[in-house]
Specification:
The protein is an alpha+beta fold. The chain folds into three domains: about 70 residues, no CATH class; about 80 residues, no CATH class; about 100 residues, Alpha-Beta Plaits (2-Layer Sandwich), CATH 3.30.70. It is about 35% helix and about 40% strand. It has six helices and eleven strands. The strands form three sheets. Strands 1-2-3-4 form a four-stranded antiparallel sheet, covered by helices on one side. The protein is elongated. The two termini are about 75 Å apart.
Length: about 300
């Protein structure tokens, strides 16, 4: 009876001759890449075997073969990642996260005046035609009289039916808007008063212009960064470290919606007189959030 297995230089065998002589051999030839060498072992003798003992011995030899064959794979050393030293350095010092902000009240320097015209009629086609003609007229007049610092553009346009108590369409209602936007409140107010016979003032809104906001945020950024640095240094000393280094930084800003005095402007439109406009204020905020490494333990 013969039982043999082999893999990549590893060999296991058990042999029983007819005369009752048995030989068991276990060997692994060679060593490569740090794989262990299994020394060969040979036993020979006159032995008596039953069918059950021969089966158990064959199973044992099979298990040993698997161990020898698997040994080179198990001995492989996992490669070291190139980023490992950096990760170790990052975790070498404690980390802390903190934030700081700076804010200021900024005057609103832009006004947006909404002029609107509305029409109602039983005919959808008539409302659409008349509304379009009025819108074109107002836009033409506005652009002709507008000063260089005033932007004129169309706003919302809507056409919808109104129904009676039975749910049937009773009439059609249309609305069109023209927008005047400027940093010169007096000029915008004067232009709006010229157009209110065809498109009365419906609403207005004050805001901080993009340039004014950017200028304010630039000054606030320096304040926020200085506050962040002061907090970082205080935190570093509080934990008995001598210095810190930045790990990450994020910047953010938040504005507040402006106040919109609509009733006042609609009363102004009824007089057809250019009334001086005055905007409110907004709070502009810049925030700095980041994390630091605490270094130099005292």
């Amino acid at each position: 009876m013969n039982s043999t297995c082999a893999y990549d230089g590893a060999q296991c065998s058990i042999t029983q001759t007819g005369a009752g002589i048995s030989t068991t051999t276990l060997a692994y030839a060679g060593q490569e890449g740090g794989c262990p060498v299994v020394q060969a072992g040979v036993g020979t003798g006159k032995m008596g075997f039953t069918r059950a003992s021969i089966g158990r011995l064959r199973n044992w030899v099979g298990l040993v073969c698997l161990a020898v064959i698997a040994a080179p794979a198990l001995a492989q050393v996992q490669p070291v990642s190139a980023g490992a030293p950096q990760r170790e350095a990052e975790h070498a010092w404690p980390q802390a996260t903190l934030s700081a902000e700076a804010s200021a009240v900024v005057a609103q320097d832009t006004v947006k005046i909404t002029l609107a015209t509305e029409l109602t009629d039983a005919s959808q086609a008539k409302v659409s035609a008349e509304l379009g003609a009025t819108l074109n007229e107002v836009m033409k007049r506005a652009k002709a009289d507008a000063a260089p610092g005033v932007k004129v553009y169309s706003g919302n346009y809507s056409l919808y039916p109104t129904t009676d108590k039975n749910g049937k369409i009773a009439s059609w209602r249309g609305r069109a808007e023209v927008i005047l936007e400027s940093n010169d409140f007096a000029v915008a107010s004067k232009l709006a008063s010229k157009l209110d016979d065809r498109a009365p003032i419906a609403s207005l809104a004050f805001s901080v212009s993009r340039d004014a906001r950017a200028k304010a945020e630039q000054g606030l950024l320096a304040q926020a960064v200085k506050s962040f640095q002061s907090k970082a240094l205080a935190l570093t000393h509080a934990f008995d470290f001598s210095t810190y280094t930045l790990r990450s930084v994020e910047l953010g800003g938040l504005g507040v919606q402006p106040y919109q005095p609509v009733p006042r402007m609609m009363a102004m439109a009824a007089d057809k007189v250019a009334v001086p406009l005055e905007g409110g204020t907004e709070r502009v905020t810049v925030s700095v959030r980041g994390s630091i490494f605490l270094q130099g333990k005292k």
